[in-house]
Design brief:
By secondary structure, the protein is an all-alpha fold. 62% of the residues lie in helices and 1% in strands.
Length: 328
């Protein structure tokens, strides 16, 4: 067995590294705090380099979507999944050691670093990277082609949603964009399956639990806290919805916006109904009043760029965060 182990450790740097970091239980020395702190330093350096590499590839892909850039991003994603998993597995050796608070947090966050962690199986990990890249490309290249006229990309449709006040046009654009997603269904189902597999291997029930674990409390606690906060603001949101629905009904008519039903989502000025800024002109409570000139008020109060940064800093310091360094 010892001869076989030595032979395996002669096969390239990756096998050597594996042999060096996974000694037999009989020969392994207990890990030390010093080793753990040194590992965290190396961890920081490796993740920084990985992030820079994938950001550069992603920039090329998102600004020049082709099958070639799809492939490049998929390979880069695959590499990040592989390396993060390797580091996360290596970090398990230091579990329970009394390392510094900063190092303990970094070791804990390592398992949460990827939103869609890759499975340990290389073929499954490559499949996840591939379908992820294909999904982002399908979304980025998505178009709606009306019966008449040129095809419309998402940027053009987003502008129409923001500016148009034609009920039928808005409905057509809203539903037209949603024709982009059905062909993505199979890839998305595979993406969820593989990402959940990766999350399972890291000790999470699914990817959702992994995401909820990023808030310094158990997943069930963040769900309960979110529900508590929602119940606090729910009356405000219900009143806001009621008011906006009435104003939109005045503009489009109650046949289009019934006062006893939800607001038609395509009338809210945003392709995903997530922001309502673009319909402010329709729902402004005091349309004859001039808009508040925030810049003039800041100048009147003696604010400049430095004081604005200091004001923002004071808010974060009040939450317990450290002050900015003098070099800032």
């Amino acid at each position: 067995m010892k001869k076989l182990t030595k032979l395996m450790c002669a096969w390239g740097t990756m096998v050597v590294a594996a042999c060096a970091t996974t000694p037999s239980s009989r020969d392994a020395a207990p890990p030390t705090v010093e080793e753990a702190e040194a590992f965290v330093i190396t961890l920081d350096q490796e993740l920084r380099e990985l992030q820079i590499e994938i950001d550069k590839v992603a920039w090329i892909k998102y600004t020049h979507i082709t099958p070639d850039t799809d492939w490049l991003l998929a390979r880069a994603d695959e590499k990040v999944m592989r390396e993060v998993r390797r580091l996360a597995d290596a970090a398990q050796r230091f579990a329970g050691l009394p390392v510094s608070e900063a190092s303990a947090r970094k070791l804990a966050l390592l398992r949460l670093w990827l939103s869609a962690p890759g499975p340990s199986d290389p073929s499954a990990r490559r499949n996840l990277a591939t379908v992820s890249s294909e999904l982002t490309s399908a979304y980025g290249k998505g178009q709606y082609c009306p019966a008449e006229g040129a095809c419309l990309d998402l940027g053009t449709m987003t502008d129409i949603m923001a500016e148009s006040r034609d009920y039928d046009e808005l409905l057509e654009i809203w539903t037209g964009w949603r024709k982009v997603s059905p062909p993505m269904r199979d890839n998305y189902a595979r993406f969820v399956e593989l990402a959940n597999q990766g999350a399972n291997e890291l000790g999470f029930a699914n990817v959702g639990q992994l995401w909820l674990s990023r808030y310094d409390m158990p997943p069930e606690a963040i769900e309960a806290e979110a529900e508590r906060l929602w119940q606090q603001v729910k009356p405000l949101y219900e009143s806001l919805h009621c008011y906006v629905r009435r104003k939109l009904a005045e503009h489009y008519g109650t046949d289009k916006v019934p006062l006893d039903k939800p607001i038609p989502a395509h009338l809210l000025g945003n392709m995903w109904a997530q922001e309502w800024n673009n319909i402010y002109g329709l729902v402004a409570p005091y349309p004859k009043e001039p808009d508040l000139d925030v810049t003039a008020k800041l100048v009147e109060k003696g604010y400049d760029a430095t004081r604005m940064v200091q004001q923002a800093e004071s808010f974060f310091v009040s939450l317990g965060m450290p002050k900015l360094p003098e070099s800032f």
